[in-house]
């Protein structure tokens, strides 16, 4: 009850605070360096393959910015640029490294520093960019609301979603996407039932969530022990769910597919089929962001980005580009 009361109080104050507090300027030291890892990953000239995915690009991203990294979600901004959000209250827009140079990078905080140190609205875990208008929807752990930003992040409004407070602070809206049919789908990392390590709660809004609007519910059934951390939609409309599992041997990653987006509907139990497992120790990491983009030859590329968890001596910020095999 105390948390709900605090949430309602904060919600009442948010519009005033956001009007009065200017947004911080972009980070002046936004240089990002791309270190090409693919040459060292080829075995006898062949590209590594993981199930239905072939690795066609691999980069380690570094920056002199001490706040760089910890990316927990990925979205497509336009034909050339991707957008990543971090769990340290930051966003990065960057040119895809498979594009011709010059590569551009832009970083900034999303929530004004006046909110730093507070329990809400700083741990970004999911993001979706509306292709019609470029607006950016971000979900946060420990917050009963989304934030909707203008394309340049100069304006923002909160969207109350008290349903998110049903999930633990560190297992919130990990996966989110605005689908081509207009629906907004959000999946929690938390297990839906204590007796199952496969089922996860999902929420469906018929469009962009509206403040206080109750969503429909469904369940996502993942491979045993894997938690859903990202949802993406391929150019052909199929859905991809990224799963993560931590073991004594490090992180394991699975990419799964939902062939028919209509399978996500109120009351449904949806079990995507695994199409790739990534346990290669050379690139094994905590992948939390994923998008799918069309290639010039009609194939589909799947991009993954890892969350370094502020552990730069153990984990890296890796960006992978994988080609989806035809006919999968």
UniProtKB/TrEMBL annotation:
Could you tell me which residue ranges the Phytase-like domain spans?
A: 67-309
What domain of life does the UniProt record list for this protein's source? Bacteria
Please give the name of this protein. Phytase-like domain-containing protein
